[in-house]
Amino acid sequence: MSEQGQAVIEFENVAHGYGGGPLLSEVTLSLAPGSFHFLTGPSGAGKSTFLKLCYGELAPVAGRIALFGQELDAMSRDDIARLRQRVGVVHQDCQFLDHLPIADNVALPLTVSGRDADPTELRELIAWVGLTGRLKSLPPALSGGERQRAALARAVIMSPDVLLADEPTGNLDWEMSLRLLALLVELNRMGKTIVVATHDLNLIRAAKAQVSARVLRIKDRRLLLAGAEL
Amino acid sequence: MDRLNRVAALLTGDSRSAQVVPPSGSAAWLTVLAAAAMALLAVFALALTLATGRLAERWSGALSQTATVRISAPQAQLEAQTKQVLDILAATPGIASARAIEPAETRALLAPWFGPDLPVESLPIPQLIEVTETASGFDAEGLSLRLKAEAPGATLDDHMRWRKPLVEAAGWIRALGFLALGLTGAALAAMVTLAAQAALAANRQVIRVLRLIGARDAYIGRAFVRRFTLRAFFGALAGTLPGMAAVALLPAASEAGGFLTGLGFSGAQWLWPLAIPLVAAIVAFWATRAAAFRMLREVQ
Ligand SMILES: Nc1ncnc2c1ncn2[C@@H]1O[C@H](COP(=O)(O)OP(=O)(O)OP(=O)(O)O)[C@@H](O)[C@H]1O
Ligand SMILES: [Mg+2]
């Protein structure tokens, strides 16, 4: 667990680009434990890129990034793996193993860290995201929204300190989006640090009614803390 | 101990870590088949190597033994010629010692053929002289000529001369056998590396996902290493056993049969081919591991 008050995610003058010029630059921020942030910006602004920098799938071209007070730069590959066990991620494209049923996919973070999933807890978790009927289905057989909910279940199964969700409601109807938001709020009340990338301003408004969420906006390659105008 | 446990875990339990990589279909059998073929070849190469080893040992053993000079002359001249031959031998460089064999010894040598009561003295049995050469050896041709000139009844039986090239040939065949064994192992390593690379490339997305959810490289590598190690082991076993059976079915080695019938394994040598599946497994383990870690480094 992170010490009280110590930033969970820290960026200092971070820049990134995929080769064709910079995409993000001079990104400096610090997310406190237990905070709830939304990340917005036009499509292609670099929201997914920002989240990938957070869990080390991408390395910054400049600046430093630290999680739980540890610099990603100085971490070994095994350190990164351990870090990812503490950071739950809902990927925009979900990223499942298509040959394993949903239940096994959800339990996968436990499996790869050498632990067994408690069958009851696993079933409860899957019920929590409303997929009880789909336990044995293979990922390709699920709808986009079902996959996103399964991805959320997988992201929280390790009870991570941080949850990064990339467009988790992209394929959900409004009602389902609100249910998923309720799940995120519940996790936040349990003390988890949450970052949600989304286009959905209605979702942000709905969240602000329930928790003190702040909004980060990517604009002109910079990351800004948005004001109250949202 | 830790290493041993890891190997045990690799081969027995933790099939769930193997499950995270999808089953690989019919191409898997190619690895098994190739390992079986290599193992079969390795058994034959091993049989050849061990047999020529034994042969070379036997022949070079005979070489370090004594040569013989045989003197066939009328009884009256025998003693004089024997003395003369011994003098010549004593003066020949390269000869450590020469000794006339006593009639009693000759009788003992002949006993198996003629029975113990052989009256050696009354028979025209040649006098034998045992010659032990020094490490540098002597000039057999020159000695033969000298003997012919000075003791007409004496012949040098230099059987060791014609054996020398044979021992050399056996040494060569043996070296070639080792080379063949080494090449078989290298070919297996190359084949497993290619197959493992293909499997890793085909599962790139799986590896990416595993990495993203916090699997360590060792964990991901293990799923592949386990597969290829087991395939190489059982494939090699499936090639080794028929190979050993084929060697066992060769006609039995006999003293008279010489080289060709001596090709099998003898005694404890039968344990050697059993090492082939183990070596194949070790080769596959390292080849797959190297291929896996090389590829994993490319996946953030
Ligand atoms: N692997 C990559 N190689 C090259 N360019 C990339 C790569 N990934 C993303 N990009 C580019 O970087 C930019 C930002 O991508 P990113 O996925 O971070 O955007 P985003 O804000 O998440 O967009 P969206 O809202 O559509 O998900 C895009 O222009 C994209 O084309
Ligand atoms: Mg995105």
TrEMBL record, chain B:
Compartments, record wording: Cell membrane
Keyword annotations: Cell cycle, Cell division, Cell membrane, Membrane, Transmembrane, Transmembrane helix
Domain ABC3 transporter permease C-terminal: 182-297
Membrane topology note: Multi-pass membrane protein
Pfam family, one: FtsX
InterPro entries, A to Z: ABC3_permease_C, FtsX
Name of the protein in question: Cell division protein FtsX
Keyword Cell cycle found: yes
GO biological process, one term: cell division
Keyword match Cell cycle: yes
Transmembrane segments: 27-51, 171-200, 232-250, 270-288
